[in-house]
Amino acid sequence: MVKETLLLTIAVLGGTGKEGKGLAYRWAKAGYQVLIGSRYSEKAVTVASEIMELLEGESSIVGATNREVAQQADIVVVTVPYSGHREILESVKEVLTGKLVIDTTVPLVPPKVSRVQMPPAGSAAQEAREILGENVEVVAAFQNISYEHLLNDEEVECDVLVTGSSKKARQEALMLVEAAGLVGWDAGPIENSVVVEGLTSVLININKQYGSTHAGIKITGAQKPSAE
Amino acid sequence: MVKETLLLTIAVLGGTGKEGKGLAYRWAKAGYQVLIGSRYSEKAVTVASEIMELLEGESSIVGATNREVAQQADIVVVTVPYSGHREILESVKEVLTGKLVIDTTVPLVPPKVSRVQMPPAGSAAQEAREILGENVEVVAAFQNISYEHLLNDEEVECDVLVTGSSKKARQEALMLVEAAGLVGWDAGPIENSVVVEGLTSVLININKQYGSTHAGIKITGAQKPSAE
């Protein structure tokens, strides 16, 4: 028996929100086994069906509780508002050992969302690292993109800066960035996540000052190896 | 008697380094009265002559001590390595009241310059604000550009994100960004300077990982008003 695919299983926690749904859609389209997690499994099942419809039945996506999907996955992607960040991580912590966690969280503090205000750990990703401990690799990515473009199959004119707890973890995450049709860059150690998370507030400020809705960034002056 | 120009006088502290020299050259070329400051006035005079030569005598640039030029200027630009940041600000503090300070400092901590490591104040610019007090407007800008391009009249493929203590101060600084031939964006309050200063470490990391030498960023998805 030959296994049909060697691609990994990705659980998207909070996958019923627009961020998670957009990423789940792109990864399912690229052939990954995608699991949608939610606090309520019925909601996750509904969103899983919606994504399957978009893909015209070309892949099977499973919906279940955040904890169930986290348990079954190789890679766990966290897409929740910052207000639910600590709670969701603590609720799945014990099934994450040895897995890669990709944290998309931006620690915005309403109402001043255009002002950088980081938690005491330094950033949301560093907070995740504190909560999850040394046996879980944490990567921060996808904080700056506009998620609407993902579901609409539109080109996303914003690069993805990937910071994380090890180079290997960042490289794994960069493969998922490319699989989602985005351009990613290794932006260094997890301490650098403050820049990428904070950049979201800078982009919100630019949208406010210049009347735009989807300000983003592109890296200039560097080239990615064509093999990637 | 009509004053020949309404352009402001800019003092570039640490103006004998490559960053300061490049910016001084661009502003002198744009018609501003530029003063070069250094710890040693002879050194400042030499660099002022060098820039005048580059401009083929089309403008007169003065060199003197940091304190002398800070006293005479409307706008004071700080271009020193982080190790000299606090000292230079304290040495000119009492002549800065009511002036605009533009801080270009990146708080790199050798040898790990590709890792973001901010001072307790949150960023170099916030540290400047703490040192100088409420009566001095502080703007942070120009942290991410490659200065070699400035002196060579080359296009700089890196936008300038401007954060600062008030919108008026950011707007004044944005005029100087444009005058230097660069594209600038209002990136919000001074608390956001951590993003822009830290971005330098991210870009250093990208240079290291991808074999580039001048990685930069461009803002996408937003347009500047053509009047600017």
Key features of this structure:
228 residues, 8 helices, alpha/beta, 37% helix, globular, eight-stranded mixed β-sheet, homodimer
Question: How much helix is in the residues of chain A?
Answer: 25-40%
Instruction: Please identify the structural class of chain A as seen in this structure.
Output: alpha/beta
How many helices of chain A? The count is 8
The protein's oligomeric status is homodimer
Find the count of extended strands of chain A (DSSP E, 2+ residues): 9
Proportion of strand residues of chain A: 15-25%
User: Which consecutive residue ranges of chain A, at least 5 long each, have pLDDT under 50?
Assistant: none
- Strands of the widest sheet of chain A, in order across it, are 3-2-1-4-5-6-7-8
Instruction: Give the N-terminus to C-terminus distance of chain A in angstroms.
Output: 30 Å
Main beta sheet of chain A? 8 strands, mixed
Overview in brief:
Two copies of one chain form a homodimer. The first copy, chain A, is an alpha/beta fold.
Verbal overview:
2 copies of one chain form a homodimer. By secondary structure, chain A is of the alpha/beta class. In chain A, 37% of the residues lie in helices and 19% in strands. The first copy, chain A, has helices at residues 18-29, 41-54, 66-72, 85-92, 124-132, 148-151, 167-179, 193-210; strands spanning 9-13, 33-38, 62-65, 75-78, 100-103, 137-140, 160-164, 184-189, 216-220. An 8-stranded mixed beta sheet of chain A has the order 3-2-1-4-5-6-7-8, sandwiched between helices. In chain A, helix 1 (18-29) links the parallel strand 1 and strand 2. In chain A, helix 4 (85-92) packs parallel to helix 5. Chain A starts with 8 loop residues before the first strand and ends in an 8-residue tail after the last strand. The mean pLDDT of chain A is 94. Chain A binds chain B through residues 114-118, 146, 157-158, 161, 163, 185-189, 191-192, 194-196, 198-199, 201-203, 205-207, 209-210, 212-225, and chain B through 114-118, 146, 157-158, 161, 163, 185-189, 191-192, 194-196, 198-199, 201-202, 205-207, 209-210, 212-225.
